[in-house]
Amino acid sequence: MTVEAATAVPSDASHEAGDNYLTHERGLKSWLITLDHKRIGILYLASVLLAFLLGGVFAILVRTELMFKGQTLMEADTYNQMFTLHGAIMVFLFIIPSIPAALGNFILPIQLGAKDVAFPRLNLASFYIYMLGTVCLVVAIVVGEVNTGWTLYAPYSIGRNVTGAGSSVLWVTLGVFIAGFSSILTGVNFMATVHKMRAPGMHWKRLPLFIWGLYATAVIQVLATPVLAITLVLLFMEHTLSIGIFDPQLGGDPVLFQHFFWFYSHPAVYIMILPGMAVVNELIATFSHRKIFGYMFIAMSSITLALLSFLVWGHHMFASGMSEYATMVFSALTFLVAIPSGVKVFNWLATLYQGSISFASPMLYALGFIALFTIGGLTGLFLGTISTDIHLHDTYFVVAHFHYVMVGGTVFGFLGGLHYWWPKMVGKMYDEKLAKISWFLVFLGFNVTFFSQFIMGSQGMPRRYYDYLDQFQPLHMTSSGGAYILAVGFLIMAYMFYKSLRSGEKAPPNPWASAGYEWMTTSPPHPHNFEETPVITRGPYDYHLCTEEELWDGFPEDFPGEKAKA
Amino acid sequence: MADAHAHAEHGDDYYVHAHITPARTYVLVLATLLFLTFLTVLAYNVHLGDWNLFVAVLIATIKASIVGTWFMHLKYEQRFNLIFFLGSLFFVIIFLGYTVNDTEHRGRQGTLTGVRVDPATGKRAFGSGSVLQAEGEFIRLPPLPGEAGQAGQEGEADRDGEVPEPEAAGAAAEDGAAPTAAGEPAEAGDSEAPTAGEAAAEAGASPTAPAEAGEEASGATEGTEGTEATEGAEATEGE
Amino acid sequence: MAHAHHGPDYLAHHFDTPKQQYEAAKIGMWIFLAQEVLFFSGLFVAYFIFRKWYPEAWSVGSHLLNWKMGTLNTAVLLLSSFTAAMAVRAAQIGDQKGVPDKDKRKFGGQAWTGHFLLLTFVFAGAFMVVKYFEYTHKFHVGTLPGQYFGCANFECTGTMSEELVEELRAAIASAHHNAGPDLVPYHLRSFFGLYFVMTGLHGIHVLIGMGLIAWIWNKNRKGEFSAEYNTPVDNVALYWHLVDLVWIYLFPLLYLID
Ligand SMILES: [Cu+2]
After folding, report:
1. What is the chain B residue with the closest CA to C161?
2. Does B196 map to a domain?
3. Which residue among A161, A249, A254 places its CB closest to the CB of B164?
4. C87/chain A closest Cα distance in angstroms
5. Which among C152, C154, C175, C176 has a CA at the least distance from the CA of C165?
6. Are C90 and C225 in contact (CB under 8 A)?
7. A253–B127: do the CB atoms touch at under 8 Å?
């Protein structure tokens, strides 16, 4: 291996043999006050998975309600709360922290060859801030009656003339505000880490693309999230003191709220999708076993996407009564986003070309990502075009579009990354067959659920409605059926990971025969990631510079890449 | 600190070498800042119309750059820090520019689309700043003692148009009375508000001016406040 | 991992050199400051839009504020920025052991760091005291945000207080944008909504800054800083300067509208 770790003096390696971050310290307390980025990553992982479960339960309830016309499970108002909670929890508590805070926290410093992130205490603080935000959101659920939708649009959320949208909105506002600071602090931490904690020899052109993606994400987290924070402060004040900024009855402007909200929330879409793309870079390269095509283009397209994301927020407001000038500018700029997105997709495809592809489960997620993200991205163009958006706005077409991007994109990226790094994180392999079955069900279920929503939407089914016309019955039925397939897929996956924890085979350091830096350390990693600070002498995708031994390190006689193919 | 100790065992890249600014520079900087503060107050007392805002922001920006350059050591900072911090201002400009691009052009659609109308009320929709100025709502102060006679003169301009009463706000309603009850609510008449002419002039530049001006003149401005929002229908019930 | 060779006490285990630690801390701080800029930006965007929409309200509103107090506070905050910068300088100079007397820099060392931090703290406190008087006056008169405008002490009786009426007359008379001598712009309530949010959030930042300065002062008292290591003083001062920067804009925009 090109790093020192590989050639480290055997005696040094043996005196702490078997010591890893999981066994280094024990007990609940050692976890709760840990400063180790890997443990904090695991804490985040557990939390976001819990949030995912909760959001998933709300999703299933929503889909079940919509299965049949009329009332199926719940009252209309309960239904409003269900989709609000589904959205708020999935966006703020699951997707946004999922890849950066959970996987990123674990992997980023290892890939950099650093011992930890730049500010470990801040890292732990941001986890607890996230938990505090979660608590506020849970209080909101308990207090009840959060029925604003996750977007919290004024004037409805101000609570005037609305029965019920009272104090619970304040709790949601507070919760999202607090969770936002967790996101900001993670961003600050990651940026400083990438700038200052790189191992010797790792210049910017040797930075793994996962890190490029997270870096771009961090820029957005730092620059966009504070605007959400100030928006929520104003909303909070409007709700409690009626300060007359968003409230039309006092001369405020509710459209201004939308500007503020989307100035954050459009870039937030990239906080969600960029890390997903970042994971896919790693997966595509590893499972094609070749140098990634167009490294610099992919890296720069991440940065470009991050910057462009600040220029297009108005495309969410074409039907909000914005001025036509603004509408035209926003629409035109929105199309620009397609360029860097396209650059990424083409580079991935070019990497696959003539690669020696193994269809291991993480790779299936990566391929799923490319397909679904492409559908999601292209339907985005329909919505960025003013004339078609007027027809499609606030229909199921929009719902399907962003689920293709958020679930087909980010969640697939997250799951791919989770499968991929699972052996590194817990030191155990998982049942590949079960993983493939669950992937198939998730992929199938997802498409059944949401493709039918594209059709419904284009036929005019409005989103967020409790009931619908007869003509939509079959499609709603299909969509709900897909949701159940999806749920079964996730249950099998949960069982698969559980089984791995219980009785998984011990993972070698580099089970996927990857050239990535994080595979150069043991699985699970040493408390300080590497026994010795590695010295980097090649890029993370330089398969042509790796010896066979390097790629087969650990279990040379039993190359799992081969097994995965079988 | 460069000159404090020699750390022979480590390279030059091991310890921090901070740049130490002479105390006199800091005193000078402070004096400049105080002078600029004086200047901005001075500029406030000179009537420059729209330029007052420009001058105020300009002086503030000079002050801010001075604080940044010397007090915050941006002059000696790592280049990335400078770029990122100043870059953040670029995003502020985007935020401001794009939002203003909406708020300043809203409700002024030019030749093709005509005046935007709120479907709920049939009134001109919330928008363009200049028009709102002319329609701006005012609360009339109680007349000064001995000034009662003059009030009638002004009264011509008074309309019964409702002021969007904060009654609708739950809290205030519970308190029994809205704060505005003090002054008799009145909307500024088009002829009265000094900005009306301005608005008309501006509107005159576009072919839709007659429509807009006509609407104003016909007194249809009542309830404009209400049409601002999606809740238009409700807020106009005062008519 | 062997810790044997690791550097000075203040060097955290995951850094290789003090310089790396210092630069990481600074980069983190500047990124955080950029975040603060964006945080306040929302308020400024709202400010400019509403100012454009409701010029009368903004003009009259600013004349309801006491520009003398605002100027005083600006001066106080600039002074505090100066002392903060001097505190950093004192810390950077360090104890100057072994430096011949004639080459010694003035106002350097631990004691001066403490003095300057204390002064900064006092100025910050003075700022808050002035703000306190401004706020209580507004509560008392009823120049309050939104639906509470005209409600002295947040109690809405249905009539404006005599004082408020008087203040309003004076403000309208001196404002360049006004619709008539006794027409009070309705949107004053939005102006004061923004005024309180802007100055309130700024005030919270001042309070946090005071806490940080006190914390640093105590660390300095314990002798934790030296010429080689004074990053916390540096970073807290940076934060403090940012608070000053925000006020540099708030002052003319709120108090000095023609
Ligand atoms: Cu968007």
Report:
1. B182
2. yes
3. A249
4. 24
5. C152
6. no
7. no
CATH classification of the domain holding A24: 1.20.210.10
Res. B37: pLDDT tops 70: yes
pLDDT at position A488 = 97
Ligand 1 centre from A265 Cα, in Å? 7
Could you identify the residue written with the tokens 């005696």? A11
Residue ranges of alpha helices (H) inside C142-182 are: 162-174
Q: Which residues of chain A have pLDDT under 50?
A: 1-16, 161-164, 554-566
ipTM over 0.85: yes
pLDDT-based confidence at residue C2 (cuts at 50, 70, 90): very low
Q: What is the DSSP string of A374-408?
A: HHHHHHHHHHHSHHHHHHHTTBHHHHHHHHHHIII
Flag whether residue A242 sits within 8 Å of chain B, measured between CB atoms: yes
Please state the three-class secondary structure of A443-487 as a single string: HHHHHHHHHHHHHHHHCCCECCCCCCCHHHHHHHHHHHHHHHHHH
Average pLDDT over residues B21-41: 94
User: Could you give the residue ranges of the DSSP H alpha helices within B109-169?
Assistant: 110-113, 129-135, 148-155
Q: Tell me chain B's radius of gyration from C-alpha atoms.
A: 28
Measure Cα distances from A307 to A270, A303, A510, B94 in Å.
10, 6, 35, 11
Q: Is A529 helix (H, G, I), strand (E, B) or coil?
A: strand
Domain identity same for B142 and B93: no
Which residue segment(s) compose the domain that B138 sits in? 108-221
Distance CA C240, CA A260 (A): 27
Given pLDDT bands bounded at 50, 70 and 90, which one contains residue B80? very high
Class of domain C18-94+105-255: mainly alpha
Q: Using the structure block, give the residue that is written with the tokens 């000159």.
A: B3
Collect all residues with Cβ–Cβ distance below 8 Å to C122 and sequence separation of at least 6.
none
Of B84, B106, B128, the residue that ends a domain is: B106
* DSSP 8-state secondary structure symbol assigned to residue B124: B
A468 HSE (CA, 13 A, CB side): 25
How many domains, chain B? 2
Burial class (CB in 10 A: 0-12, 13-18, 19+), C159: middle
* C41/B47 Cβ within 8 A: no
Residue span of the structural domain in which A306 resides: 3-565
Using the beta-carbon criterion (under 8 Å), do B95 and A227 form an inter-chain contact?
yes
Instruction: Tell whether B126 and B196 lie within a shared domain.
Output: yes
In the three-class reduction of DSSP (H, G, I as helix; E, B as strand; rest coil), residue C12 is classed as: coil
User: What are the structural domain ranges in chain C?
Assistant: 18-94+105-255
Beta-carbon count within 10 A of C12 CB: 19
Nearest-Cα distance to chain B for C194, in Å, is: 16
| Contact yes or no for B92 and C168 at CB 8 A | no
Whether B118 and B202 map to the same domain: the answer is: yes
Residue A462's beta-bridge partner residues? A395
Identify whether residues B77 and B131 lie together within a single domain. Answer: no
Quote the Cα angle for B131-B134-B135, to 5°: 90
Q: How many domains in chain A?
A: 1
Contacts of C6-9 with C-beta under 8 Å, sequence gap 24+, read C7/B14, C8/C228, C8/C229
pLDDT in tens, A475-533: 999 999 999 999 999 999 999 999 999 999 998 888 888 999 999 888 899 898 988 88
Note whether B196 and B116 are same-domain residues.
yes
B208 in reach of chain A (CB within 8 A): no
Name which of B67, B144, B158 to mutate to probe chain C: the one with the most chain C Cβ atoms within 10 A of its Cβ: B67
Element at B186 (helix H, strand E) = strand B185-187
Same domain, B169 and B158: yes
Among candidate residues A75, A189, A66, A173, the one with its CA nearest the CA of residue A127 = A189
User: Quick check: is B16 in a domain?
Assistant: no
Residue type, position A444, single letter: L
